[in-house]
Amino acid sequence: MLSSNIVKELQGIVGGENILTSKEERICYSYDATNQQLIPDAVLFPQSAEEISHVLRLANSEKFPVTPRGAGSGFSGGSLPVEGGVVLSLERMNHVLEIDSENLIAVVEPGVVNLDLQIEAERFGLFFPPDPSSLKFCTIGGNIAECAGGPRAVKYGVTRDYVLGLEVVLPTGEIIDTGVKTLKGVVGYDLTRLIVGSEGTLGIVTRATLRLLPLPEAVKTMLVVFNDLSDTGRAVLSIMNSRIIPSAIEFMDAVSIGCVEESLSMELSKDTEAILLIELDGESGAIDRQSAVVRDICMQHNAVNVRVASDKRETKDLWRIRRSISPSLIKLKPYKLNEDVVVPRSKIPDLIAGVRDIAGKKNVIIATFGHAGDGNIHINIMVDNNNHDELRRGKEAVEEVFRLTIGLGGTISGEHGIGTVKAPYIGMELKPHVIDVMKKIKQTLDPNGILNPGKIFQGK
After folding, report:
1. Distance of CA 83 to the CA centre of its chain
2. Is residue 187 a contact partner of residue 230, using CB atoms and an 8 Å limit?
3. What are the φ and ψ backbone dihedral angles of 252, each rounded to 5 degrees?
4. What does the pLDDT average to over 23-44?
5. Positive or negative CA dihedral for 18, 22, 24, 27?
6. pLDDT given at position 459
7. Which residues are CB-neighbours of 56 under 8 A, at least 6 positions away?
8. Looking at the predicted structure, is the pLDDT value of residue 156 above 60?
């Protein structure tokens, strides 16, 4: 526990109205989407880089841990205060500071919600491509910490591709600026890229300069039904090889479809094995031509139904189906082990078939869905966490899924990060000397190990 003297000093830094110390209040900041709970000793709501700097300097002096937090929507335990101490919530640093429509950039604070930035950018005819499924509540700071992606990544890339520069408070309290406001810049090491995806272990982002793009003139969305999983995979590859790059190709397997079938408003046969949600954007005439080509490709690969959204409302309804999969899985079991592996697109059928084999061998339910366009598939192993044997089998299935993924030339995390959940498995993918280099970087920037300890690497 923090001493009363430390609490008083923290109050002096952020103000008494910006610190929580009662257990009831601290519980609200003790968990994330992993459903694990670790209660901090205090919760702070800083409103400037200078306040954060003072907090970190005090933390280094008094040797208490500090865990930065956005919306707590992560699936890897990245915002959990595993060693207690202070949770530093950035939710009140939530201002869009600038939209520069001439240079296509936005300057924002870390607590800005992704969707709020999207809405503000659209007022200027612009958009911010990264669009995680949690975009209605996840924050830009969290997106940067995890290098979030989303359905549009297949065409537009992930968060790191849109971060031009950052203001960062280092673990020891120094405030630095990284990057540029220009599209090019190669002066010195790329510290911006180092911070993006570092899961809040190397510094706390207090301001971000982001690249925006012109809003596409038109969008066309279609839902395609297949009775054969292999046909689905071949259709994805054929679309990507046709020189058409959709803004999204989302995949849902039969287990996922069963959870949202009531929302589909279309008749599905008992033989349905997969659905693709495909979206095209760009100039109106071009996407009309492209959608006809995509439809023909799907039919050539034995699609049994192609539904094209007729207006914005129907498009929104189709995306609501995709975004509702994850929360609807509770219909199957009360607890999920949520993984987000990535394989080369050509290996998606092998991954799905292998996952099915693992589910049968371990006698667990596994739902698969996600971003087929870039090979990022979400593997949800559904278990009753009160059934110890089933939970054990579920965890064994996780390890087998990771081994399968790496064997197919993939990676064990595409956008969720490592945090605490995947830390035991990082050595499956990274060689020991690579992990040592990463640990040396962490030690150099955070010599006292106070910033978000217990994440990415197991042990000290």
Report:
1. 24
2. no
3. -135, 130
4. 95
5. positive
6. 58
7. 66, 169, 170, 171, 172, 173, 204, 450, 451
8. yes
Nearest residue to 159 (alpha-carbon basis) of 444, 421, 417, 432? 417
Q: Which amino acid is at 335?
A: Y
**CA 64 vs CA 22, 201, 204, 453: distances in Å:** 18, 15, 16, 10
- Burial string for 43-64 (b: 16+ CB within 10 Å, else e) reads bbbbbebebbbbbbebbbeeeb
Beta bridge partners of 220: 280
pLDDT, residue 66, reads: 98
Tokens of 66: 């500090």
User: pTM of this prediction?
Assistant: 0.94
Domains assigned to the chain: 96-214 (3.30.465.10), 218-322 (3.30.70.2190), 332-416 (3.30.70.2740)
Beta bridge partners of 167: 177, 207
What is the distance between the alpha carbons of residues 418 and 374, in angstroms, rounded to a whole number?
Answer: 19
**Pair of tokens at residue 388:** 């110890």
What are 20's strand-pairing partners? 43
Pick from 73, 76, 12, 74: nearest CA to 44: 12
**How much is the average pLDDT of 127-156?**
96
pLDDT in the model for residue 183: 86
Q: What angle do CA 349, 355, 356 make, to 5 degrees?
A: 90
Phi and psi of 364, rounded to 5°?
-130, 160
pLDDT tier, 182 (very low <50, low <70, confident <90, very high otherwise): confident
Query: What CA–CA distance (Å, rounded) separates 61 from 2?
Result: 13
